[in-house]
Amino acid sequence: MRRIRANAIAILTVAWILGTFYYLWQDSKPHTPPSSTDSRSRGHGGQPKVVPGRLEIHRDDRTIALIVTQPPRLDQGQLLGGFDEKSYLSAKTLKPGDDPYREHAFNLQESDRLGSERAIRDTRHYRCASMNYDVDLPSTSIIITFHNEARSTLLRTIKSVLTRTPSSLIQEIILIDDFSTDPDDCQLLSRIPKVRCLRNGRREGLIRSRVRGANSASASVLTFLDSHCEVNTDWLQPMLQRVKEDHTRVVSPIIDVISLDNFAYLAASADLRGGFDWSLHFKWEQIPIEQKMARSDPTQPIRTPVIAGGIFVMDKSWFNHLGQYDTHMDIWGGENFELSFRVWMCGGSLEILPCSRVGHVFRKRHPYDFPEGNALTYIKNTRRAAEVWMDEYKQYYYQARPSAQGKAYGSITDRVTLRRKLNCKPFRWYMENIYPELRVPEQEAVSSVLRQGGLCLESKGPEGLGLGECRGIGGNRPQAQRWELIEPLIRQHDLCLAITAFTAGSKVKMEPCNSKEPRQKWKPKGAALQHMVSGLCLDSQSPTSPPVIMQCRPQLASQIWEPQIIS
Ligand code: LR7
Ligand code: MN
């Protein structure tokens, strides 16, 4: 009896101990997150998504789900390898009494004070935080070109990338030192794991530097950054996702503002896109109102006519297929128009992704020299873009920037050949479909006579044309000798000068105006008038027979037409 009691007590004790252990074990076991209230931890298959480098703490009290995602605490040694951050930064500091803006056109003292890393506000729309991205996004080569960048801004750019990007997405960071004064600015940074440094043997400018970086990149996707940026939370995934889905998309983030005075990180408006005026001056502009109304989802991409140029992601083979950049552009400027026109006109698209945010220090002046001068370089680069891509619309560029006329811009044969080879659409298509908001300037009709020696071009009969003795003076000219020159048309009332065939010797006659009719398109070529499509020039032949088109010989008296403006 006693034995039985003792056994029972022993069994109960063991059961109690086991029960206690089971209870404690249950409590410490990780709980699965609830399925109904939160989707951010879910992948496509409904399984909880494993986000690399992220710690998720889930507390499930059956009614609410609290999920806290924290940036990974990265070990500095692991992050920076053999790179000695302190000595890199302290080797160059502002001397007391020095102007902190002099060298970099931003407040160097403030930048240095911030150090290599800092917390910044997540400036995205709150809905962006619950976006899902593929777990198998491609990795990317990040290309940063710089000329005499401040060490603190350059290092902050790199560290923000390393700390705010899942490391599996970074194939490498390629720095191109565009012949900065101190090679160590770049060289020392190559001790950081994944960072490579290429130094130019002479100053090339950002365009050729980026091409060099792209050529040495080993990933299938390229990511370009300026050398004074700070990337924000999840900046890269939205861009890689869009490019992965369609390799012809070229995507950029919303570019936040880092104050050049106090380095405050400020959110930029999410309603802007890239635009320009006819002088090829880049500007941010409001999304057209109809598009704004149609945007029900603030995380949707924004189509943009042009990109700012410095911060974008592009598939590497698409970049190569489209002809990289125009490497005859120097130092700075214009390449963003050239790339943007090319992408749109040759079958791709440009977008700004609101869920991607990158801060950039905007400056008011260039802190570096332009070997050929700032203005001449900008004119050369934009003139190349206009000559290759803008077709007849380039006249508005020249109208807005008269000083560009006659300035050297080198040979564009290669780029014109590229455009033909890629079978790109005309600029008119770009104007009508991508940037219809850009208005062409009001054409003021200029009335003039077209004089050749003592004779003037005049209309004769319903369609005929010939030369007649110049009659009348000032505004008092006969109607038959009064021409309105509205490029590309040469007009008299509603009739226009047109060729009859595209071959040399063809007659020229008058017919109802239509600015899209190729037979009616003319442009001045020196003192001659050239038919735009055939390339032949208006030739008076002889005073008695009607004018024809002939091989251009602008010195030839029968091809010289002096316009004299009449009131
Ligand atoms: O000779 C040079 N070599 C270089 O490597 C001159 C410059 N650079 C580097 C420079 O260190 C910097 O990293 O090129 C980059 C751009 O030069 P910035 O920062 O002096 O000029 P920016 O910020 O005004 O440049 C904007 O316009 C340029 C036109 O050529 C480029 O497209 C830049 O990439 C572009 N920057 C951005 O789009 C960031 C957002 C600013 C805006 C709008
Ligand atoms: Mn910049």
UniProtKB/TrEMBL annotation:
Chain ranges of the Ricin B lectin domain: 443-564
Locations listed in the record: Golgi apparatus membrane
UniProt entry tagged with the keyword Cytoplasm: no
Matches recorded under Pfam families: Glycos_transf_2, Ricin_B_lectin
Classification via PROSITE patterns: RICIN_B_LECTIN (PS50231)
Entry GO CC: Golgi membrane
Catalytic activity: L-threonyl-[protein] + UDP-N-acetyl-alpha-D-galactosamine = a 3-O-[N-acetyl-alpha-D-galactosaminyl]-L-threonyl-[protein] + UDP + H(+); L-seryl-[protein] + UDP-N-acetyl-alpha-D-galactosamine = a 3-O-[N-acetyl-alpha-D-galactosaminyl]-L-seryl-[protein] + UDP + H(+)
Region (Disordered): 29-52
Protein name according to UniProt: Polypeptide N-acetylgalactosaminyltransferase
Native species: Knipowitschia caucasica (Caucasian dwarf goby)
